[in-house]
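ARCHIVE CARD
Drawer: 12
Card no.: 0347
Subject: one protein chain, sequence and derived structure
Cross-reference: see card 0346
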Amino acid sequence: MKSEKKDLRIIKTQKLLKESLLELLKTNSLKDISVTEICEQAMVNRVTFYDHFSNKEELLDAVIEDIKQDIVTKLDNDNTIYDFKKNYRKILEKILDYFDDNKNYFNTSLIDYNNTLLFVSSLYKILIDYLGETIKNDDNKNRTIMSQFFSGALVSVIFCWVKDNNKIKKKDLLDNICSLLAKSFK
């Protein structure tokens, strides 16, 4: 029983630190945020911070991992979409839904205040990992190149779409991306 309580405290503390970092990212770039500020925002002491994370970059990596897990969980809920070439429309629709549902978070925390590179590199890492696993191809080299290419393109499009506050309708964006992918898979 005692270990469950400890685990719960660890989970709560890490969640509090992550939320504090995200709150600070709304008004600052990562480089301008100190561990002390994160601790003050979370109302925990520095020792507690360092019990969980080595530095603010490791904390950010944990936030990015949470985002990745959210996206992957959303995708894994549908076992029929594991092959990207066959099911790219479904996969992209789920990814766009995720970003549409969380656009305020991404706009304020990861796109504003010089955190653009952070958003782009985080999303690229998430997509390249997922596409690397789901693009079915006999040639491993080609699969790597394809996952890098599609990840880069999708990151660029999703970034602009989120940054522009979804001025393009999600369906129109999805239709256009799918049209381009269909041509590239021929």
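Annotation on reverse: The radius of gyration is 18 Å. The CA atoms of residues 39 and 45 lie 6 Å apart.
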